[in-house]
Automatic annotation (TrEMBL):
Keywords: Nucleus
Primary residence: nucleus
Keyword Nucleotide-binding assigned: no
GO biological process, alphabetically ordered: positive regulation of transcription by RNA polymerase II
GO molecular function annotations of the record: DNA-binding transcription factor activity; transcription cis-regulatory region binding
Pfam family, one: Fungal_trans_2
Name used for this protein in its record: Uncharacterized protein
Residues passing through the membrane, by range: none
Subcellular localization, as worded in the UniProt entry: Nucleus
Amino acid sequence: MSMESPLLLNAIIAWSSSHLALRIKSYEPIAIANRCLALQSLSASLSSTTRNPEMELASCLIHCAIESITGDTKEWFNHLVGAYEVIRSVTSSEDTSQLDLSRFSTTFEGRWLLRSFAYHDILMTVVEDRKPLIIAGEYWNFASDALVADSYFGLASRLMYLISRISILNGDMMDCADGSASAESFSHEAQTIQQELVSWTCGQSDNAMLVHLAETYRSAALIHLFRTIRQHRPQLTATLAPRIATQAKEIVTRIEKMPANCLAESSLLLPLFMAGGEVEDPEQIAVIRHRMQDIVEVRQFHNVQAVLTVLEEVWHLRATGVLGPGRRKVDWKDVLARRKWMLSIT
């Protein structure tokens, strides 16, 4: 594909040189020049009368990933929104639930692009406290690809959908600032999602690391759900605390069973972050800290370093007795608000 598309080729070269520059600082000027060229190619394509949405989507996602791995805390989101606009541009509907995705879903490459977008979009909702950009059910899950582990979320496709439903539930509650949302409907949806998360079973696989990864995603999804309930029903904080602690401990236990530098480790940031934001036991904190430090050192994913920086501040503030707004326990949301950061946890 890249040999047929200068747009995609320039984006891949920018990606590769940016990776190289993270390891060899002398390559930084070349990486910057390549990124500028790739952005110029994308701009030219978007303004062309002979656009190629597939290549434009791939380019936007690559730029999103470049900003992410280099530790950016804002621009990655702009490229994600750009990817969304490319997808939306192929349909006349303003309602994302009515998007015609057949332009992408009829080819293997197009389906992979949709899964890649969904992964970035859904994880964005967890940190940004908002709904997904695209709300169209499990649009990235195709029967023809069901038996293949995804390169991003492995065997956790259904869990990604449930995480998106939690974020939609959270967004719906935030939209009803006057409290008009039905307490009964909120509780019913939260309970329905929790039941599905608890009853979910991992697909058959002889790869134990993929199974461990999927189970950490289940626990991360449950933490996301319990945090959402806590946010909108603060009177349940004490009841939810042990449930959150149980899932955080489960994530730590699973992580300890995954060897450092295994392939599945590259998708561990979501569970590491969700557990790290809740654990208080020094030994559990140490497990999370050391694994994240290893990922930064070996893989040079600087967004992991940004996430660790936030968690380190949370751990320090809690250890020193500093309280958050309303005299509640300091949360990573407080740190992000103060720093004005948008974390990429992909």
